[in-house]
Amino acid sequence: MILYEHPLNERVRTYLRMEHMFHRLSSLIHRDTALDHHYALHALFELLDVASRADIKSDVLKDLEKQKQHLNSYRGNPVIAEQVLDQVVAEIETAFTQLNQLNGKCGQDLQDNEWLMGIRSRIFIPGGTCEFDLPAYFSWQHKRPEMRRKNLMDWCTSLQPLLSGIVLLLRLLREAGVTHRVTAVGGHFQQSLPAGRSVQLLRIRLPKESGLIPEVSGNRLMLSVRLMQMVDDARLQAAGVDLHFDLSLCA
Question: Burial code of 208-219, b = ≥16 C-beta within 10 A, e = fewer?
Fold first, then answer.
């Protein structure tokens, strides 16, 4: 099965993008080649562009507090395991405290690093990080992988509280979803979203062997999924087939 996720608001869209960049950064850091570490820096600067926004830190803090209050409302419910509830609430409190203790914007120490900002100013220019443009960076790429890896992990430190909070929020959001088996008739599925329930994320699992790609549109009232297939010239066209797939609505 291939899992596709589709956000239904801009905040979750931002969280998913940051999670995606964070996973890519984590994968690249643990490799050894200078080229992998170059693209790890590229991913780090992409994360910094989003993390340094004034609203992102406050949004994550608000969402963590909202999740904590929501979970605490289940206390005393006989079907809820209090020990598990305490553990999740403790995770939220830890993430909240670590992020709240950061002074100023996330990643501010990276923006104060003149050497890193010199690389950042050129890394998005095609060929902008050649050795004749950035000889000090070229020299850094020739250091031992362990040293480069340590530098990269140190530079990630100031972003870690924000990223940990986002990963936790997305995990809780995904776990709140209930999966249903639905059918796209003639390659199209449409459903009204539950009234009074703020669905924030759609998760769609399609059989890998089908070769189909979901084209999703949705808002707080309606969800539409059209199944597409790639033809020989790499264009997408409507599949027009009946297919069962798994759908999760996460609120």
Answer: eebebebbbebe
